[in-house]
Amino acid sequence: MAREARKRERKQISRVCWVWLTFVLGIELLSSPTTACQFKVTRVYDGDTVLARANDLVIKVRLVGIDAPEVSHGKRKPGQPYGRKAQKFLASLVLNKTVEIRAYGLDRYNRVLGVLVLNGRDINLEMIKAGLAEVYRGRPSRGFNATPYREAEEHAKKTRTARNRSVR
Asked: Which of these is catalytic: 3, 15, 100, 111?
């Protein structure tokens, strides 16, 4: 019984620490239009979400300004067409590499909304140019300029490099 109580207490402390860290990080990120930091990408969840690490800080990053097809997140749950292809392409670009993350705040799931930059290349934009993502149609992040993304999407459509069927 005491063992279970200690286990619950540790989980609760862990949750409190996570909420506090998220709050502090959110305040820091939202206090300026953009914040840039160096992180190593340690996991690619799909074509628009990665896990990044810097020292003891681990963050989940949602690539701002783009929307890539979803991959399957469980048995018997189909992903969207080109979801795995988008995930693999993004992984080939950034997995286990140190990138600059230009942050534009947090989304409703407490993920950092960010642009990944590797050797001066905007990786979010590269996903659109490859036809594996489209411009995000939801509410834009404050301070984020989606114009180059829309132009790249139009170019991909015209030159038929758009591999994702959702890019029309």
From this structure: 111
Question: Which one of 70, 126, 134, 153 is the catalytic residue?
Answer: 70
- pLDDT above 90 covers what percent of the chain? 57
Q: Is 151 among the residues known to form the active site?
A: no
63, pLDDT greater than 90: yes
Q: In the predicted model, what is the mean pLDDT of residues 123-138?
A: 94
Catalytic residue among 15, 43, 62, 139: 62
H/E element, 141: none
| Residue 160 is a catalytic residue | no
6 burial level (CB within 10 Å; 0-12, 13-18, 19+) = exposed
**Domain extent listing, the chain:** 1-31, 34-158
Strand bridging mode 112-118 / 57-63? parallel
- 163 as an active site residue: the answer is no
CATH of domain 34-158: 2.40.50.90
